[in-house]
Design brief:
Layout (H helix, E strand, L loop, with lengths): L1 E12 L4 E3 L2 E3 L4 E2 L7 H13 L5 H4 L12 H14 L2 E11 L9 H12 L6 E6 L5 H4 L3 E12 L5
Parallel strand pairs: 5-6
Antiparallel strand pairs: 1-4, 1-7, 2-3, 5-7
Helix pairs in contact: 1-3, 3-4
Bound molecules: the ligand Nc1ccn([C@@H]2O[C@H](COP(=O)(O)O)[C@@H](O)[C@H]2O)c(=O)n1 and 2C-methyl-D-erythritol 2,4-cyclodiphosphate (CDI).
């Protein structure tokens, strides 16, 4: 069993959609980034890459590469999933938390979970998503940005042992 951790933050700005776990969330501001800035999916990718000792998303998908400009982070997650499969890793479970003072994310978590399960090829029970505020403290509490943490465990498939 191998464990990985991921953490990412993106800034909230005008004139950008708010996309988390591939779900477009109606909100007056959205996350700034080279890709679609889906901070939850980024933290999950970093956890998966970390567990496999494959570095981080900046190494695999540099923001200097025009191919990734505006890309859906779910497309990047597909690539990470393929890399894990090539190396005979399977995902055992995944847990993540989005740190956002607003909007209320609970209503959107089931759709995010469904999107992630589909791409990762996992049953829903292997994925858990949560949201928390910071009780108005810090950058997230002031609504300046949104952060996400993710932890996952990987198993090496039996065929590769
Ligand atoms: N952006 C958010 C933040 C929180 N929630 C839900 O509210 C619960 C209480 O949050 P606290 O930060 O006050 O502990 C939390 O457990 C989530 O269920 C949310 O939906 N969206
Ligand atoms: C995903 C990438 C690539 O488009 O860009 P961003 O959306 O800016 O995200 P970040 O978490 O800053 O770093 C990874 C990047 O290389």
């Amino acid at each position: 069993m191998r464990i990985g951790i991921g953490y990412d933050v993106h800034k909230l700005v005008n004139d950008r959609p708010l996309i988390l776990g591939g779900v477009i969330i109606p909100y007056p501001v959205g996350l700034l980034g080279h890709s679609d800035a889906d901070v939850l999916t980024h933290a999950i990718m970093d956890a998966l890459l970390g567990a496999a000792a494959l570095g981080d998303i900046g190494k695999h998908f540099p923001d200097s590469d025009a191919r990734y400009q505006g890309i859906s982070s779910l497309e990047l997650l597909k690539e990470v999933t393929s890399k894990l499969t090539e190396l005979h890793y399977s995902i055992n479970n995944l847990d993540a938390v989005v740190v956002a003072q607003a909007p209320k994310l609970a209503p959107y978590l089931p759709d995010m979970r469904g999107n992630l399960a589909k791409i990762l090829g996992l049953p829903l029970e292997d994925i858990n998503l949560k949201a928390t505020t910071t009780e108005h403290l810090g950058f997230a509490g002031r609504g300046e940005g949104i952060g996400a943490y993710a932890v996952c465990t990987l198993l090496k498939s039996k065929a590769a042992l």
